[in-house]
Every structure is written in structure tokens, then in C-alpha cells.
Amino acid sequence: MKLKICGMNHNTAEVAALKPDYLGFIFWEPSSRVFRGTIPELPSGVKKVGVFVDASLEEILEKIKEFGLHMVQLHGNESPSFCKEFRAATQLEIPVIKAFSVGASFNFEQLGPYEAVCDFYLFDTKGKLPGGNSFSFDWELLSDYPSDKPYFLSGGIGPGDIDSLFEFMHRPEAGKCHALDVNSRFESRPGEKKVADLTKFKKRLAQGR
């Protein structure tokens, strides 16, 4: 199970030293975690993910070039045709994560049109904001997951969820779970991560128990 730490801003280098698989940088102005500044040099193997919410193709391509992004996470209402246009513009070199908000229920039929135009799905908790709402959804809903596409599990995952995560990982619906995505519940303030908590969490995940 890979780890993505999202909402990076104030202490990126310190978090990157933990060598997570992915670091997420939010490029949505209304977010309290919107990234500004320069991304420091990261350890080998740590991939930079740009998070966008209904941004234009031009803006996304500009940020990819400016920050050397390895992947793009589309966290708004981006259409399948937009995803297709993006993949054509980048010649399939930049993988696409398409995010979906999950409430008390979720209609998995909406994934169908995206099957051929994105590389990963991400399931986050439906809330007032596109992400970073600090609470989780019922992971049992993923028992109806119909796709072979790998997905990121997001939405309010915190230090106290490790035992629940291990239980989830042993269920069939976790078979396509590519990575865990953590953010707000590991923060001292928006964009500043609690490195000690992340260290313990990552170590427990690696132990697998």
C-alpha cells in the first residue's frame, strides 16, 4: 500500500525526507493549502502530484512545466472529454488521477465514461470543500467497486485509523487500493504537517500490523 501526503506547503522538505510515494501540491486558489513558492529538490522516487479543481488545460500544463509535476489529480467536475483532451496534450506522459466525492452512497456507474481516459481514481469524502474536510466515508461502500483500475483512498484518514485500515486491507474491496491519501488530520495548521505523526503512521503501515 503506497502513501500520498497531500496539501504540502510549509515544511515540504521535512516531509519529503520520510520518502512517501507521492506528495500532493494544491493549485486551487480558494484552498487554505494552496501552494505558492518553490518545491525543494525531493528524494528520488517521490512523485509530485498537482491537484487541480476545474482548472483550464492551459493552467494545468503551465503548472506541470513550472513545477516538474509527475502526475495530475483532477478534483473537480472535470468531464471525460476534458481528461481525454489532457491526455492527448501530454501524450499520455502525465498520469491522471480522477477524484470522486463519496457521501452516504455512491453510484459507481458514473465511473464508466472515465475508464479509458484516466489512470487512477481517488475516492474522497463529500463535504463543503473539494477535499480536506477531515472526516471519512464508509469504506464498505467500496465493496461495490466495479473497475479493475487502481484507486487512492482519501478522506479524513488520521493517526488513529491504522487498525481500521488494516482491517480494510484484508477485505476484497481493498484489492485495487493503490495508495492511501492523507492530509488535514496530520496537520498543525493548513499546509504544515506533523512529521512525528506521519513517521509513526508510515512505520506502522510498513509493518503491516
TrEMBL record:
GO terms for biological process: L-tryptophan biosynthetic process. It comes from Zeaxanthinibacter enoshimensis. It is an enzyme of class 5 (isomerase). It catalyses: N-(5-phospho-beta-D-ribosyl)anthranilate = 1-(2-carboxyphenylamino)-1-deoxy-D-ribulose 5-phosphate. It holds the Pfam family PRAI. Its EC number is 5.3.1.24. Belongs to the TrpF family. Keywords: Amino-acid biosynthesis, Aromatic amino acid biosynthesis, Isomerase, Tryptophan biosynthesis. GO terms for molecular function: phosphoribosylanthranilate isomerase activity. SUPFAM superfamilies: Ribulose-phoshate binding barrel. This is N-(5'-phosphoribosyl)anthranilate isomerase. It comes from the Bacteria. Pathway: Amino-acid biosynthesis; L-tryptophan biosynthesis; L-tryptophan from chorismate: step 3/5. Residues 4-201 form the N-(5'phosphoribosyl) anthranilate isomerase (PRAI) domain.
